[in-house]
Amino acid sequence: MYRLFRKKPREHRITSGQTRKEETGQNGSGQNGAEQDGAMKEQAGTIRQLAEVPEIYEAHIEEENITITADVTIEVPETDRIPLMDVRSLPYTEEELEKLQEILKQEIGVGDWVEQSGDDPRTYESSDGVYILSLGAGDRQKPPMVWLMCPGISDGTGGGDDPDDLSGFSVTGDDRKLLQAELEEKAEMLLEKMGLENFCLEDARWRRLSVSEHSSWSMSEQWGVRLYYRRKIGDMEVVNDTGEYSLPGLRTQYVEFLYREDKTLLAVKDIGRESVTDTREYAGFLLPFLAVSQIFEQCMKSSVTDEDMTEMGSHTYLAVTEVKLAYRREFKGQAGSQDGGGRLVPVWAFYGITEKGYQDHVSREAAIFPIAAGQGKETLLLTINAEDGTIYGK
Known about the structure:
The protein is of the alpha+beta class. Helices cover 19% and strands 39% of the residues. The chain contains 6 helices and 19 strands. The chain has helices at 30-44, 47-50, 94-108, 173-193, 289-302, 306-310, and strands spanning 12-13, 56-62, 66-75, 83-89, 113-117, 122-126, 132-136, 145-149, 153-154, 199-213, 216-233, 236-237, 254-260, 265-271, 274-282, 314-331, 342-359, 365-370, 379-385. The chain is globular, with a radius of gyration of 24 Å. The two termini are 27 Å apart.
């Protein structure tokens, strides 16, 4: 075990776009303190060295019911220590909600908002009847929220067809990449207007849009892309657990935009607004990555349930696509409460694609299907506390 130099805790609030600045040593000021701090950093080494993190995570594990493969670069911040952050729900003021109303009105080009409900969240309808806007200031029971939607258009399942089937989408290849880049630029400008400058793009998913007519949903010939944004502090992203190992109500602030192919904004979500405060404390001992990878592999083996094991001819294929050191929120007090606050701690986040194969009567692979939760797309498989190996959401 090694010890990292910790400064006396002192609160320091991070504002949008602000980066962590170098500190002077507590044992002295000026050049002498800086030299002592620099010497300790040199002795400690980088996080990659301290946690014995290789450049590549490689694995090929074949068991009766599951095959795990990995050959990915491990993403680690180039730093010698990881700051710990406190997070707390940050309710909106009346002035902030009024400003957001105006920003979104200009963004979608509507004349005005007509109040539909004065409850919390307050609900408004656009003057043309196309959009619904819900604004919640937030309190101890409810998270702050901004939610703009078109009630008649959705990128979810409609009419029984697969919205992920893009075979009929005429914009393909480089043209689709160019269009997506333009939409991402529009989203980033809107993020800045809304005061969300410390968020980065997590994922982008094109889907076929469904429309509602006479209380019935059906697939249209319209297409849209949903852009998912997560908070980023320095070089580390903040992850939210998803899928099998997640627990409801434990997500940190997240932001989403839905754009139609004609660049029309269809939806905005900003749920769970938070303040982030630098504690001036740092993560202590970090587990060697070998131990972390073994925990991950064992969890994935155990995820094959008894039902799966008895299902004739079934076999799970798990391909790891990404591994990174990130932040995850640990709640203080009662988990999921809006006033308990929490702390961002370092975790190892493993992403991948999970599929299931079936064999025929002569043990030949007959078909491979994506697991329902991921639908053949990359998902967050597991997060593991980098300090003590805690498995979150299991």
